[in-house]
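Let us practice reading a record.
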Amino acid sequence: MFTPLHGTGGILGVPALNSVGFTNIIRVEEQFVNDPNFGTIKSPNPENKEAFKLAIDYGEKYDGDILVGTDPDADRLGVAVRTKTGEYNVLSGNQIGALILNYLLKQKKNQGELPTNAAVLKSIVTSDLGREIAEFYGAEMIEVLTGFKFIAEKIKQFEETGSHTFEFGYEESNGYMVKSFTRDKDAIQAVLAISEVALDAKERGFTLLEELDNIFSQFGFYKEDLVSLTLSGKDGSERIKEIMASFRNQLPTSMGGEKIAHVEDYLRSEKSFASGETAPITLPRADVLKFYLEDGSWFCLRPSGTEPKIKFYFSIKGASEAASTAKLEKIRTELLERIEK
């Protein structure tokens, strides 16, 4: 099932899929109508299950394996996958990125086409599952600040210096770049990539969800979450500053019963360790705090640059899905309780 959510993805999405051999495509026809009011949905955000409501109806009617949706300007991709019980599970941006990344690097490695200086780019608030995947295949994971302009800047540096060969770039907010000619996130490339991943998995007897479980079994069970707190007006702006100052000036030593190993303060360009040692951060300054736990899990505080919000990101690793979920709940609860005090 394919939906462009009333936007431009309908012009290129299906022809692109047809061009590489995907022909069994059911169009969500009502959402192929260009409509600036997005008449069939409340919000055309492919990160949310609500945006897939009509596509899910189509999936249930036509017994679809996967549902793919592009946002109206076709730069972000959403994916929903049918479960064993017949329901549809909307994948997170981190999960889609992990599936594409694992497939691309595995294929290139198996075919002897992965360069020795291969590099993958991700934002600092994107799950570290991608780092584990990249390092397993011999590629270097390089982090940048949030925003695809920073990924594009790195690609330009690679081309000028020859230091690395770009393989893949992505952010947790459902933005992906497979080929660097766009210099930005591109949902059409991502539609092709995730469709190929799904086909490869199906030929080996797996659904996309089962393929994701295979990745978790190999690299660890990661659970992510994002909490956005809206604080409008002058008072809200001051409250956001107070929250950041509180964490920056009184660094927690643990969260949810887990010890904090080091803190990355991107405003001070400094990484500080529990041992008292420090190290520089070479990225541009930004009002971001990231707390790493001893097991590699982390949580992050970042005020939005475009909205009156402060965002709390969580990337939790555990020995099982249940362990990751329980740890996430404890850490998230304690963090938000501290904010409310």
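A brief commentary: The chain has a mean pLDDT of 96.
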